[in-house]
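Hi support team,

I'm filing this because I wasn't sure whether my run with nicotinamide-adenine-dinucleotide finished correctly. The job status page said complete, but I'd like someone to confirm that the output block is well-formed before I use it downstream. Pasting the exact inputs I used:
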Amino acid sequence: MRQIDNFIAGEYRAAASGRRFEKRSPVDNTVIASISEAGRPEVDAAVQAARAALHGEWGGLTTDQRVELLYGVANEITRRFEDFVEAEMADTGQPSHVMRHVFIPRGAANFKVFADVVKNVPTEAFQMATPDGAGALNYAIRVPKGVIGVICPWNAPFLLMTWKLGPALACGNTVVVKPSEETPNTAALLGEVMNAVGVPKGVYNVVNGFGPDSAGAFLTQHPGVDAITFTGETRTGAAIMKAASEGMRDVSFELGGKNAGIVFADADFDAAVDGIFRSAFLNTGQVCLGTERVYVERPIFERFVQALKLKAEAVKYGRPEDHAASYGPLISQEHKCKVLSYYAKAVEEGATVVTGGGVPDMPGELAEGAWVQPTIWTGLPETAAVVREEIFGPCCHIRPFDSEQEVVALANATDYGLSTTIWTTNLARAHRVAARVEVGITWINSWFLRDLRTAFGGSKQSGIGREGGVHSLEFYTETRNVCVKL
Ligand code: NAD
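And here is everything the job wrote out:
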């Protein structure tokens, strides 16, 4: 069993209280790690270490020197690729090919991409006229915001954490990370990488624990934290926003979604089925950008439902290291209970269960894991809880529609606004619908195709602010204007 401690000022430290909590494998529910729970003293020490680094060696580096270190971090992650794959698989139980092809390489890329961004993005300058005719010159400089509190979820832990760390560090900030209590492994491993590469002590700190009355709340309430970046549930975002209002700290929020997939009858049918299958069931449906509401134009509705059903019934359950496995468990028993409660609610609300709706028959010790079946419903009104609320599981409700206007209204009838995926071969319509769906990210004939330089974030209750490319600089730096009278 792994022992995971907090990482403060370049050292692994157990909490003075001696408090530890367990991490169980999603695959078979065995205990796989014991984690030290940071209390207020450890959070305070981490924030102090981050502050000291800001005013120490790290703060004195040139942009080029910082960028070189971040390239080194990316390369060291790649060198220790198997360790990261193994750590992430242990935490999430997801198939190794997803770790190998998406989550870990993208984690390394997050350091390189933002190192390039800070090197190459200019700041603005304005010349202005003055009454004496000599004029003045304004130019902007960007400075790091300071100590950034980074609060992470469990669904793609390494990718989502590095998505924040890459730009935060590239911009010259220091960080205190609070990984999800469900997925502490890769954040701990990254401490070894930072030390191996020579990132100064205190630049990267990790405090483990939970949310309320634990490390998450202690960190977000800490007056030494200058800004908070958070990915997680909308409800948690509201609690963090209250904490951030003390001291007027800035926030960047990537929150929940109840995303619509829209399939027109003229779509490339097989590509649309594949796309919606991925968007509903990848990572066992635990993707914020995932599709839990699918709207299919009536002429192809029945055929589409049957095709998606066949694919959902063909998933291969298995341990992450089993190369034949295409589908993993949910993150935890607690989340399994939540998802199954929605499966029961769908039936109570009168859904037709096209496929799934329960727990698969798993062999041996896997029977103890957090497995649930991929599930498809039809026949529910838009007012049903499973059509309105984010479930964050491998499930979707499919409804027919008859017109473009109707489907745009259906897609927009939600408090969330993260992403949508639109399938059609009519280009004019694709652009038209994309402009009218109230979300931060729209994919046409694709899903989860990410260029890290583009804006990422949600509308409505799905988030505050945008990250990605230059947009990340807006959050992770302060822009100062200097006005020179000529
Ligand atoms: P969560 O909100 O339960 O927890 C996220 C993190 O916040 C954890 O580290 C948790 O310990 C911490 N936390 C909880 N309460 C806190 C508090 N009061 N103060 C400070 N920290 C607190 O979310 P989760 O279950 O880990 O992740 C799933 C959610 O994340 C889903 O809603 C999903 O849509 C969302 N998500 C959004 C995006 C996006 O980019 N928009 C990406 C991934 C996940």
